[in-house]
Write a structure and sequence with these properties.
Order of helices and strands: HHHH
Structural class: mainly alpha
Helix content: 40-55%
Strand content: under 5%
Radius of gyration: 24 Å
Amino acid sequence: MRLAVKRGAERTPLLKRYRGSRTSFSSVYTGADVLLLAHTDSLHGTLSGPATKKLMERAWSLFADRRYERLAAISVAHLYNLRPRFRCSATFREVKFVGGLQPALVAIVKSTK
């Protein structure tokens, strides 16, 4: 049996690899949108996805801020996918961070000696 599989693999590949076109999907969110998301995260301290989505929806619908027009309709999953983009990019350094998480030292086990 092994010999038959080996001979078959030599003739033709067992698995055909198909690649999609590099330009098959257009980008919905621009670099300015990603930078605006980074700025929103820095102002509000990187809230959860649903809370950030609600902030952007309110900025567009309630306060009529045109910068949030595309981000108001973003899904929470796509928001989480966009966050690593600005964490690793050079534009992330342009965003001024107001606050952040500070590490806290907590003793897990107390020594009784």
